[in-house]
Write a structure and sequence with these properties.
78% helix, 133 residues, elongated, 3 helices, mainly alpha
Length: 133
């Protein structure tokens, strides 16, 4: 019950984040009125995402906890159902997949951000080196 409630809260937070991102893009003229997603990632999106990430990772570790608890329950002598260990496997695969995917996306965004900053510094140095004046 607590896990279902927490997932509802996370879905609400994700909805608010996505709604805010699309509203900003629409107001900047970079998205159409009917757009539901965009390509690319803008600098200002980190503000909302950095707020959302701890809640997401807590939910992912909650999934790992559920998987561990279900595996423990599957070894109980009164547990004869096959659904308990299968559900434990599903929760484990889901948690590991979510953690891995989110970590890779963050790593990719940080690398792109650092590469963009490095190129800007390199361009500035070249401009200063060949400055006419």
């Amino acid at each position: 019950m607590l896990f279902a409630f927490y997932l509802s809260v996370i879905q609400l937070l994700q909805y608010q984040y996505q709604k805010g991102c699309l509203y900003r893009l629409r107001s900047l003229g970079e998205a159409h009125n009917m757009a539901i997603t965009i390509d690319g990632f803008h600098q200002w999106m980190w503000k909302g995402l950095s707020f959302l990430l701890p809640f997401l990772f807590f939910g992912y570790f909650f999934q790992l906890y559920n998987a561990f608890t279900l595996f423990q329950l599957s070894y109980h002598p009164n547990c004869t159902d096959w659904q308990v260990p299968v559900l434990g496997c599903i929760f484990f695969i889901l948690a590991v997949g979510n953690i891995t995917t989110t970590a890779e996306v963050i790593q990719h965004k940080v690398k792109a951000r650092l590469h963009k900053g490095y190129n800007a510094i390199k361009d500035l140095k070249l401009k200063n080196k060949y400055k006419v004046g």
